């Protein structure tokens, strides 16, 4: 097709915009979207502009097009564009400084008088995936759906609108499916005049702190796409995400890690993830070969037989240390001040709800109180919190920490505390790890401390309705220690190996050479946030392990555009106990590529479209043979063949060995075809390898190569 497409999502009401020479009419019928009178079968991918840098966009779009996509889909992030009422930001460098996410809604909406999120409520009129929560609003739900549709259509954009996961989307808005198996779960268009559209085909499960990453394999994604096209007459599929990127700053929602959909076809750094990218590319090419038949012909089904496979390259992503920050001399530190009640400018005779108090200006809220004690004693303090994290200090000393989880934000910290005779300073640091992003009545959500009690000799004293002082955020945040200017005014101390909580660290480093993506290895740290030259690369929480004992995320993306050639300022705020001497700056690359085929594999579908009719039957047959295709990433060539076997190699690209049948020419043939090249193609062919090494035995070709 001519041109390129962008689908702009405004919270579930989707408008398709054509960015092509000459424009064109966009309509639809019961089979597909129609452009300039022609039905179109479209593949799209979600790439969210705030989760990557402008410098990454051209490469991401180019790889998406090369992968067979017709369109790019993105949300419009209202909270990043209008962080305060009437204060609009459109420059991307400003967008990256955005704060937490309440499903893309700016937090100031919370303070609009009379507002009820996600209902037929005059102050609030915008939505996404509403059917998930519609029943919670009873009779106010359906009128809100009708209003949203009428509002969108009334804008007269001249292009179709879509409602995601809204089975009763009013005409002419198209109801669409979101999920992993829309070929099985979608109820179908609610009108014979509407096409079947899949607006979010989830390529992964978004990761949260404490959960083991679940992988959605390319085969499952591709099968479900093919099923949707055939069974549901589907004509539009969007992959959510095609490139996930990074939740920079504090933009990640509750308990969501900084890396976003790293398992997408284009990974967090924008590198091609194989086999997912290549498998889907093959699928797109195959579908497009018969798109006219699919869109205009009469449907009939027949079996291709069992165990049909697609041959595509696999790749291995690796990280190599480029700069080790292991010298104490290059580090400085500053201990965050622990406030007391007398320091507080804001006071209340009760425990304040955290989000209403901080207004999303910080993840942190200090609750402080002065507690009179008649004599020295060992008491028990119990704090009930609505989340997400709590650090308890008494007279400046840390006595305990606790946290919740995504499924259960609320938790209780109970610990013994030594109280001195006289006044004792109780300082409770409540920390949110992102704002809520889904569900009904989001404006009613609560965070922060709920109750506080102290028990002495079986006597429980309730401090919930007590005189409390408050400090929003950290002193280091307010003074912007993470910037060059703010860092210069801090009274930094030399690094002290006896670490303590609530410590700011700073160092400087030179950027690694080359153009490979860069990541910060924070595996030796605990919990906090990291900045490069004043730009936050996100929250980290190494100490929150998954059930198998591993951190949810260790490496944190540093976009090349954040770096200077030399003297890059690295600043970290560490809440817990961390060792900055274990931090390194690493480069990320595709270091290995692998492919395997058998005689039953079809040749790459993309090659069918390139082949011209040939008078030489042998040449034409040879071109249609299965083949292993290997391609290194830009500016890298195949430097070494790690494994090559034509015969019966066991295993696959993840684990392999030479089998009972093996051509002794395998390595020589592959090295001659591939070494020193950016890409190579080796056909499955007895002749290519000097004859049949084991007649009568089905043969496979498996090759793994190193890229440098």
UniProtKB/TrEMBL annotation:
GO cellular component: apoplast
GO BP term, example: carbohydrate metabolic process
UniProt KW keywords: Apoplast, Glycoprotein, Glycosidase, Hydrolase, Secreted, Signal
Domain of life: Eukaryota
Segment forming the signal sequence: 1-19
UniProt domain SUEL-type lectin: residue ranges: 625-708
Xref: CDD domains: Gal_Rha_Lectin_BGal
Biased composition (Basic residues): 618-627
PROSITE patterns: SUEL_LECTIN
Keyword Signal tagged: yes
EC number: 3.2.1.23
PANTHER family: BETA-GALACTOSIDASE RELATED
Listed name of the protein: beta-galactosidase
């Amino acid at each position: 097709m001519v041109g390129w497409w962008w689908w702009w999502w405004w919270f579930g009401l989707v408008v398709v915009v054509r960015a092509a020479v000459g424009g064109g009419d966009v309509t639809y019928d019961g089979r597909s979207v129609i452009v300039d009178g022609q039905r179109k079968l479209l593949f799209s991918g979600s790439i969210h502009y705030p989760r990557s840098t402008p410098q990454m966009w051209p490469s991401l779009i180019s790889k998406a097009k090369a992968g067979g996509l017709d369109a790019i889909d993105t949300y419009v992030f209202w909270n990043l564009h209008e962080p305060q009422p009437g204060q609009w930001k459109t420059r991307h460098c400003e967008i990256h400084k955005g704060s937490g996410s309440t499903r893309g809604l700016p937090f100031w909406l919370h303070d609009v008088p009379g507002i009820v999120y996600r209902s037929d409520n005059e102050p609030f009129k915008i939505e996404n995936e509403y059917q998930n929560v519609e029943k919670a609003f009873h009779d106010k739900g359906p009128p809100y759906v009708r209003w949203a549709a009428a509002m969108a259509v009334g804008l007269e954009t001249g292009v179709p609108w879509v409602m995601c996961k809204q089975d009763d989307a009013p005409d002419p808005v198209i109801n669409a499916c979101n999920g992993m198996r829309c070929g099985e779960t979608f109820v179908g268009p609610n009108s014979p005049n509407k096409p079947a559209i899949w607006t979010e085909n989830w390529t992964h499960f978004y990761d949260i702190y404490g959960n083991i990453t679940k992988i959605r394999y390319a085969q499952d994604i591709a099968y479900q796409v093919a099923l949707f096209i055939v069974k549901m007459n589907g004509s539009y599929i969007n992959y959510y995400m095609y490139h996930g990127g990074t939740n920079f700053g504090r933009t990640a929602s509750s308990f969501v890690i900084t890396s976003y959909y790293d398992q997408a076809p284009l990974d967090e750094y924008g590198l091609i993830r194989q086999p997912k990218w290549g498998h889907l590319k093959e699928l797109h090419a195959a579908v497009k070969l018969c798109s006219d038949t699919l869109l205009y012909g009469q449907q009939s089904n027949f079996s291709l037989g069992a165990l049909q496979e697609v041959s595509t390259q696999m790749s291995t992503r690796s990280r190599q240390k480029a700069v080790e920050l292991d010298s104490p001399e290059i580090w400085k530190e500053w201990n965050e001040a622990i406030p007391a009640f007398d320091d507080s400018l804001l006071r209340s005779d009760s425990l304040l709800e955290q989000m209403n108090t901080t207004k999303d200006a910080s993840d942190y809220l200090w609750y402080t109180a002065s507690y009179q004690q008649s004599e020295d004693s060992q008491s028990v303090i119990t704090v009930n919190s609505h989340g997400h994290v709590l650090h308890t200090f008494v007279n400046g000393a840390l006595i305990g920490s606790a946290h919740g989880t995504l499924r259960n934000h609320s938790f209780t910290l109970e610990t013994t505390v030594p109280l001195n005779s006289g006044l004792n300073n109780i300082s409770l640091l409540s920390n949110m790890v992102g704002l809520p992003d889904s569900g009904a009545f989001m404006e009613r959500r609560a965070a922060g401390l709920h109750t506080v009690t102290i028990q002495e000799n079986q006597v429980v004293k309730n401090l919930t309705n007590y005189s409390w002082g408050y400090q929003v955020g950290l002193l280091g945040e307010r003074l912007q220690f993470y910037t060059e200017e703010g860092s210069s005014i801090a009274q930094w101390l030399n690094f002290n190996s006896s670490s303590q909580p609530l410590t700011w660290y700073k160092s400087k480093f030179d950027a690694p050479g080359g153009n490979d993506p860069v990541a910060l290895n924070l595996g030796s740290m605990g919990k906090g946030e990291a900045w490069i030259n004043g730009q936050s690369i996100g929250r980290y929480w190494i100490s929150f392990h998954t059930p198998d004992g591993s951190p949810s995320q260790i490496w944190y993306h540093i976009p090349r555009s954040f770096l200077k050639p030399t003297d890059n300022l690295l600043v970290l705020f560490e809440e817990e106990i961390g060792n900055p001497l274990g931090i390194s700056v690493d480069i990320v690359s595709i270091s290995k590529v692998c492919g395997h085929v058998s005689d039953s594999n079809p040749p790459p579908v993309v090659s069918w479209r390139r082949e011209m009719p040939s008078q030489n039957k042998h040449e034409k047959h040879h071109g249609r043979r299965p083949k292993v295709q290997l391609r290194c990433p830009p500016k890298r060539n195949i430097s070494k063949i790690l494994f090559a076997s034509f015969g019966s190699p066991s295993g696959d690209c993840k684990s392999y060995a030479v089998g009972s049948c093996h051509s002794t020419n395998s390595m020589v043939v592959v090295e001659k075809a591939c070494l020193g090249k950016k890409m190579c193609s080796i056909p499955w062919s007895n002749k290519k390898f000097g004859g049949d090494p084991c007649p009568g035995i089905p043969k496979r070709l498996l090759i793994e190569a190193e890229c440098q």
